[in-house]
Queue: 2 jobs
Job 1
Amino acid sequence: MVIKAICPSIRLSHGKPEIINSDQGGQYTCPAREEACEEIRISMDGRSRCLDNVWIVRFWRTIKREYVYITPTDSVKELREGIKDYIEYHNTKRPHQDIEHRIPRTKYTEIDA
């Protein structure tokens, strides 16, 4: 199933990514998947290390809860545009609890200065 999802995605979207993050399940470590992704760096979480990708899991959970599940769309194009807009909102207008209820863009700008 992973191969059926990765290969068309690479061909039809933006080409091969530089890196793919995954867990260490058999579907992600099988030779067929490694062959399909041979020119892509693999970032794999450590075994039994549930915190390795907690930030990206939390990010996608937030997008699903605050946008996807409550916003009906009629097409994949509409969904993609909506997610793109939500990510812009998420980074530029939405306060985040983990950074003292501040906006990520503001926090990033302060660090960069």
Note: The longest strand covers residues 19-22.
Job 2
Amino acid sequence: MYELFYRVEINAVCLLLLVWIIYQSRINQDQQTKNILFRNVMISSLAVLVLETVQLFVNGRVGTVAYIANYALSFVYLAMNAVMAYNWFVYTLEFIIGKTKLKRVFTTAVFVPVVFFIFLLAVSLFNGSIFYIEKDTNLFTKGSFYFIQAIITYGFFTAAAFVALVTVIFKRNTPSKMIIALAFLLMPLLGGLFHMLFPEAKIIWQLLAVSQMLVFCDGRFSLISIDALTGINNRRSFDNRMRMLSLETVYEKVPYLFMMDINLFKNINDSYGHPEGDLALVNTAKLLKEVFKTTDAYICRYGGDEFAVVYACENAEEVQERIHKAFEDYNKTSGKPYTLMLSVGYAKLNGTGKDAVVKMIKQADLSLYDEKRKAHALIARSKKKKN
């Protein structure tokens, strides 16, 4: 009885923790791939803990309803074990590797073992190969092929831990990211080891809830790098991004830095007031996010009315044109008494290290200055023609 009480109590604490994290992440985080994957991890963790808690009360209670409920709960619980482990593995790759966008083909292929296991679970309802419920006692019993569940579930956790271990040993990262990588490494291994030594004491899901709390807190601390007005990254975040870029030695695609400035922004403030100027900044950030919404581009407010984007692309000129086109389309329907346009300069990162990054920033800034000069000359000629 006391064992049941303590297990339910621990699960209840973890459930409240996860519910709070899910709620906070839904109202405060954007729809970047990393955040969506993290939410999937939390929701599947929540489902596993809820199912485990309910099963604690149902398992061993005799009666037809309890017997059917135990079968249903056991089936869904074991299936969610595999789904949760899969979500953990995919999120680990996205969080730790980060730079490489996970291909849909890869994530689909990795999900195949989960589908296979769920199929075996369905078969097990008829032959008891994975699990069965004792009819007289209504107790969950492991079948002869129950080990498949452990192979798939702990296989994903082990793979995630291996990725984290490689990151800790071989890659240079921020202390924050190293701590989170260690959490990904240690928590599943500790939970799995404890479960092997004490099969009836399942604490892996509770330890994973602690890991998710660490990830969430790390995300909260990162909010100091978010621009309060526009909701995108700020200059502090940009400087850190450049520092991280200078530490990298290999790029899947060479990044470009796009530096942007709102044309005649001072006129917007002077003619229509600072609230309208703030709105112009917010709309600029929204348009840039829309332009790069299907990419892994890094977008920030560099300062004042300047913005920056770090994006590994094949054709920088085409990207520049896409940005201009987005603002042209916006101006056609905005109904604003002013035209919101950007000057866009860019530069490619040539080489590696701090000097290469500093040179890229200087070249992008010079390119922006040249674009602004052209834009202002064009605006001046347009005004002369009107007069």
Note: The radius of gyration is 27 Å.
